[in-house]
Amino acid sequence: MTINIAIATYDAIVFGCDSLSSIVEQAVLPFRYGQDTFARDAQGNELIDAFGNRVVSVANVQPFVTNVFGGAQKMFLLYEDDDTSVAAVTAGMATLSGVTIASVAARFRKKNSSDGISFTSVQGVADAFLEYTRTEWERQLDYANAPEEQRPYFPDVQFIAGGYGKDDETSKVFKIYVATRTLEEQFVWQTRSGTCFGGQADFVERLLVGVDQRIINGVNHRLISDMPARGARFASSFAEQLRAAGVTIPEGFQFDIPQEFTELPWHDYVANIDFANLPTQYAVDLVELLVNLQSGMQRFANGVATVGGRTHVGVLKRGEKFVMLNEPKLHHNHTGYSHDL
Questions:
Q1: Fewest C-beta atoms under 10 Å: which of 39, 72, 280, 334?
Q2: Assessment of whether the complete model's pTM goes beyond 0.85
Q3: What SS3 class is residue 103?
Q4: CB count, 10 Å around CB of 75?
Q5: Whole-Å CA distances, 248 to 231, 252, 256
C-alpha cells in the first residue's frame, strides 16, 4: 500500500507520497477464532472438491504483507512541454510487465515523444495514460485469457494525476483507476481547489473529514442490519398503545413499517481549510504533514508497516517545470580502506 496526496491551490498543485513498496501474498488463516475457514453448502456441510480437498471460502482469503522495501518511486512526470505539464502519484500494483510504474510512465513519455504526440489538456494526458497503462495491466494479468469470474479480484493500479494544460483555464486533477478503466475529475467546483488522497489514507481521512470509510461502512452496516428489529419493536409498541387506548385491532392485521435508510451527514464537518488561497509553501507543509501522519501511525500500528520511508513532495505551477523537492541522489558510504584521496 501507499499514501497519495494532491492539494490544488490558485497557484500550484502539490503532490505527496511515501516510498515503501510492499510484497503482498493472498493467504488464509485457518484457525482464526470464531471464523469458519471452509466453505459450506446451504445445509451446512463442508464442500469437497473433485480431489477430496476442503474448499476454502473466497471471503476468507486475505492479503498479507510478506516483505517491504524502501526507495520506491511513486511520483513522476507524465507529460511536459512549454504550455502543458502533468505529473502523477501512484498506488496499488508496484510493477507491470516486469518494470516499475515509474518506468511505465517513462516509457509513456518516450513513446509520445518519438511518435510526435503532443497534448493541450490535462484530461488528454490522463486519458492517454489510462489507455497505455490499461494495455500493460491486461498483458501483466493475461486478462484476455482469464476466466470471467476471476477478473473482479484482479489487483488495481491507481493514480492521482494533475497539472496545467494549454487549453485549460485552471489546474485539473483526476483520479485514475486502471482495473475499472475510469477517470474521475476532482475539484469540479469554481475554485478548482482542494485536497484528495488515495491508497491507504485512513488516518489522513480521519483528520480532514472527521471519519474514515471504515467507520462510515461499519455504522451504515449496523444501522441497516438493525432496521428489521427496530421496525418490529416499533410495530409491537404501537399496537400495545392502540390496545391500551381501547382500539380493537382486527385479527391478522399487519403493520407495514417502511424500511427507509437515511444517510448520515458524514461530510458536514470536514476541516475548515481555505485550500484555494494557501500559499504554495503552506500547501507543501500541509502535504508533508498528511503523508507523515499516515506514515507515522503506520509505524506504531500492529503488523508490518506498508506506508513509510522517505516523504516525497512535488510541485507544479503553470508555465514552470515540475520539480520534486529535496530529492536525494544515489550515493555509497563504504569507500574502502585505502588512505588515498
A1: 334
A2: no
A3: helix
A4: 23
A5: 21, 12, 17
